[in-house]
Amino acid sequence: MMLSGLATAILLAAAFLTDVRWQRIPNALTGGFFLGGCLYGLLSGGWQQLMDSMLGAAAGFVPLLLLYGLKSIGAGDVKLFGAAGAWLGIGNVLQLMLFSMLFGGLIGLALLALRRTLPGSRRTYHSSFPFMLAVAPAAIVLWVM
């Protein structure tokens, strides 16, 4: 479990840096960590653990397809949760997803409040923000629990 937590922390840190800077999470990052999570599962627990890794990836990936279809998040975010699920498993990736959405909602509300209180902010307001700004505190909450 310690290696999977470290791998997920590295994945999220790298995704945070690229998402905040370019609002992009590279396919090489998410794809590499997905494959790494599956390989780790196979080597550490055989076929059953590989299946658990793949189910975790699906649990992270599939629900976020709906949000991607609604243009609420980017494709990189969807793939990120798939890769994280390969390392974390179903339960933990679903908790990470829930906490991320809660933090994302709080950030969205804060941006709306700022938009209404800052003079001239309506002209310069951006309707999107890097989702990793919500995922990072969510991951911290998950690891503290």
UniProtKB/TrEMBL annotation:
<keyword id="KW-1133">Transmembrane helix</keyword>
<dbReference type="InterPro" id="IPR000045">
    <property type="entry name" value="Prepilin_IV_endopep_pep"/>
</dbReference>
<protein>
    <submittedName>
        <fullName>Prepilin peptidase</fullName>
    </submittedName>
</protein>
<feature type="transmembrane region" description="Helical">
    <location>
        <begin position="93"/>
        <end position="114"/>
    </location>
</feature>
<feature type="transmembrane region" description="Helical">
    <location>
        <begin position="55"/>
        <end position="73"/>
    </location>
</feature>
<comment type="similarity">
    <text>Belongs to the peptidase A24 family.</text>
</comment>
<feature type="transmembrane region" description="Helical">
    <location>
        <begin position="126"/>
        <end position="144"/>
    </location>
</feature>
<dbReference type="Pfam" id="PF01478">
    <property type="entry name" value="Peptidase_A24"/>
</dbReference>
<feature type="domain" description="Prepilin type IV endopeptidase peptidase">
    <location>
        <begin position="7"/>
        <end position="109"/>
    </location>
</feature>
<dbReference type="InterPro" id="IPR050882">
    <property type="entry name" value="Prepilin_peptidase/N-MTase"/>
</dbReference>
<keyword id="KW-0472">Membrane</keyword>
<feature type="transmembrane region" description="Helical">
    <location>
        <begin position="25"/>
        <end position="43"/>
    </location>
</feature>
<keyword id="KW-0812">Transmembrane</keyword>
